[in-house]
Amino acid sequence: MENFKMVAKTFFGFEEILANELIRLGAQRVEQGTRMVSFYGDQGFMYKANLALRTALKVLKPIKQFKVFNETSLYNGVQSIDWTEFLSVNKSFLIDATIFSENFNHSQFVALKSKDAIVDQFKKKFDDRPNVDKDHPDLRINIHIQNEICTVSLDTSGASLHHRGYRTATNIAPINEVLAAGILILSGWTGQTNFLDPMCGSGTFLVEAAMIACNIPPNINRKEFAFEKWKDWDADLFEKVEESLLKKITDFHYDIFGYDKAPSAVAKAKDNAKNANLEEYIKIEQKNFFETEKEVQGPLHMVFNPPYGERLDIDLERFYREIGDTLKQSYPGTNSWFITGNVEALKFVGLKPSRKIKLFNGKLESRLVKYEMYEGSKRTKFQNRTDND
Length: 389
What we know:
This protein is an alpha/beta fold. The chain has helices spanning 15-25, 43-52, 71-79, 107-126, 177-186, 204-213, 235-246, 263-275, 316-330, 378-388; strands at 4-9, 28-32, 36-41, 58-67, 92-100, 131-132, 139-146, 149-155, 194-197, 256-260, 282-286, 300-304, 334-340, 355-361, 364-373. It folds into 2 domains: 4-155, VC0802-like, CATH 3.30.2130.30; 177-215 and 250-379, Rossmann fold (3-Layer(aba) Sandwich).
């Protein structure tokens, strides 16, 4: 099978970890961009990328690139593609457009002109046309205009790849699954210690942490991908790719704990862990983090998404001070990471973060911060190290 170019889209700040994921999977000619990574692979690798990438939102397959200056050049460029190769009159399609260009103001206008070009081509050839379907199209097309360059791609994924298929119940402010997986990878989580999310909500960090620890493909529970409706869909090849990934699943010898003080959140998190077939690794309890202490021996890896005050009404100063006090007093030997969209609130934690990474949670600029809680005092730790040298 021939290799072709693909583009995996991701969140700001995840480009490097997505590139590393692709290299480990066996992608060729991997190049990082902004919120995207380009790479080469064959049809089987396209299936593999959709099943196995944790930090990709979409995998696109570019089919044509041309210059655009106005609506006429856009229309002509889209119409220069032979759409019968990908689409039939009795099938449906949908166009997503993203634009970063002074020549075009509206993504909806670009989508509409591109749709006209495709429909007119079919009408001329067959006196008939495929329909637009916004919910379940047979073909998803992506139009990307950057300055004067228009790239037309087939969307191989369909719905965003954060729709893993396990999360049926969510809380008031659920974290996106791709964002959760990326945060876990940035935090250095590999499954070599016990893990705790002390404010677990609907359990997204817990499930993603278990999947990373066991090397489970993140989209193994997903209902469908866009490429399953393509003319060249190869079910046997997909099955082989799926089987090869399933053979690489490993066991996990620690525990993943989740706490939440809301009974409804605990119930949802348990449901989602069960949906992902991971309840044997995940223990969820109703607890208020501020009234807990570290229950396991040895190192503990902690990752959580505390409320920012955006959607939940809390006393931010008191809340973030309690986070710092609980970590300091009750969680020695813990690497604690959390993401917040309220950068000002971090000063109330009362601890100095050892790392601070800029990310976006939706459109909200956020910080992922790390606090290292040593066994005993930090000074004692370094004195001991010096004495032993």
